[in-house]
Amino acid sequence: EKLEVAPPSPGQLKHVFFHNALPFVGFGFLDNAIMIAAGTQIELSIGVVLGISTMAGKYFRIQNNWSLFSCSSRLAGYVEALASRLGLSIPDLTPKQADMWQTRLSAHLGKAIGVTIGCLLGMFPLLFFGDEEEKLEEKK
């Protein structure tokens, strides 16, 4: 006899969603803020020193963002550890419930929406870089 397992309740799915979303908000925030701040400074400093065009500077910045992403992705473990210290508990699901499509969908949506919100919040360094890029254009 196969025993049917009830699918997760809407409350459990909401718990799965937030359990996955909150660490990704933190990760998206840190990732985007670090990439914008460090990438802009690299572009402004190296671009001015080498006298390269704006397009070449943008290309160089894109290449550096890949390496910065690998550094910021290491922060994900710290963000998850902080979330668990703040009391973000693991959803109470059976192994079969955790493997159901509803649970996986809720987890993936939480991660996608969390990282999107985090990246949007992480764009705050852009508020401080408008003047420097205008000055760089005036120098050329």
Automatic annotation (TrEMBL):
GO terms for cellular component: membrane; mitochondrion. It is found in: Membrane. It comes from Centropus bengalensis (lesser coucal). InterPro entries: TMEM65. It holds the Pfam family TMEM65. One of its GO terms (biological process) is regulation of cardiac conduction. This is TMM65 protein. The chain crosses the membrane at residues 33-52, 109-130. Keywords: Membrane, Transmembrane, Transmembrane helix. It is a multi-pass membrane protein.
